[in-house]
Amino acid sequence: MSNNVLKKEFQKRDVERLRNLVKGKYGDKTTIGVGYNGVSKEDHKEGDIWEENGKKWTIRDGIKENVTKLDNFKKAAVPLFCPECKQIMDKQLDSFYYKSYNCCLDCRTKFETRLKIEGKWEDYCKQTFNQEIDEHINDRIKYIENLLLETNNNFITEAGDIEKWVGNIDKKRAQESLDEIIKYLTSLKK
């Protein structure tokens, strides 16, 4: 009979677990865990950028990602599957179409064909052309504004000498030139 004697003592958590099983409480915990619960203190939305523990974070497509110097490369990289039709993007022109339109060649072809069937193709081309002209006008305005904010009081040569230059940009003439450019570009709109 000495061989049948239980030599191991039960711990308190073992007894609690057996009681829970007998009572039918299969999911109840018998130990207390301490640690990180995974919930951040702040609620962040899509596109927010914040700093946490010395790193910058953002939320893209519902996923928390860190912001790095390679983010521009991530945008330039082509995914394996098309975001619209979920098909593999393995055709020769798919990468070019993804960089321009964020979809594969087949999706873009279907989109343009649908516009042509519905008779909206001409309007779409005009709208796209006018948007490009508007962007060009905005770029010109920003360029001239930056030029007018620059000062040329001091100039450092390659030898390290500081030269003082006299004269500034003629603001009136620059504004007249900008107005002419805007007038010309607006006349190109369809």
What composes the largest sheet? 3 strands, antiparallel
Class based on secondary structure composition and strand pairing: mainly alpha
Question: Could you report the average pLDDT, rounded to the nearest whole number?
Answer: 84
Oligomer: single chain
Q: Strand tally, please?
A: 5
Sheet with most strands: strand arrangement: 1-2-3
Radius of gyration: 33 Å
Separation of termini?
103 Å
Inertia-based shape = elongated
- What percentage of amino acids are in beta strands? 5-15%
> What low-confidence regions span 5 or more consecutive residues with pLDDT below 50?
none
Count of discrete structural domains: 3
Tally of DSSP helical segments = 6
Helix content: 40-55%
Order of SSEs, N→C? HEEEHHHHEEH
Keywords:
mainly alpha; 45% helix; 6 helices; three-stranded antiparallel β-sheet
How is this structure best summarized?
The chain is mainly α and 190 residues long. The chain has six helices and five strands. The chain has three domains: 48-77, no CATH class; 78-119, no CATH class; 121-187.
